[in-house]
Amino acid sequence: MPPWTAVRVKVFSKGRPLRIWRKIWAWKPVNWKKTVARYNDLVKAKSDADFGKKAAYMIYPVKSGPFYAFETQVVSLSSIGGVRVNDRLQVTDINAKPVPGLYAVGNVAGGFLQRPLLSAL
Asked: What angle do CA 55, 90, 102 make, to 5 degrees?
């Protein structure tokens, strides 16, 4: 793919500053400003209370670009009996309640058949 083809067809966007994304992706200014401010506060504190990122990696606040964005959807590729996750990729228990602090991604996440009954696979 030629450089930035995805940008030209509006699948992917590149912008500086962040306010450009607000226009392209219809983000609510209050939401993204709070999210960026929250992340920058966590970086300053060297403690990721939201996702548990190690302090050694909490070194870059969000302040200058360019920035890149693309729209995605949470889907499952090939999970048969894997752990079930919600739309925030939080692992859920048998009652579909999030397990605090536990996340899953990739082929182990999805859990369409959380309690599988497999026959001739």
From this structure: 50
C-alpha distance from residue 110 to each of 10, 76, 87, 95, 104 (Å): 28, 5, 10, 15, 9
Nearest to 74 by CA among 59, 90, 58: 90
Length of the chain: 121
C-alpha 92/C-alpha 99 separation (Å) is 5
Rounded to two decimals, the pTM is 0.48
pLDDT tens by residue, 69-112: 776 766 555 556 678 888 888 999 989 899 999 998 877 776 65
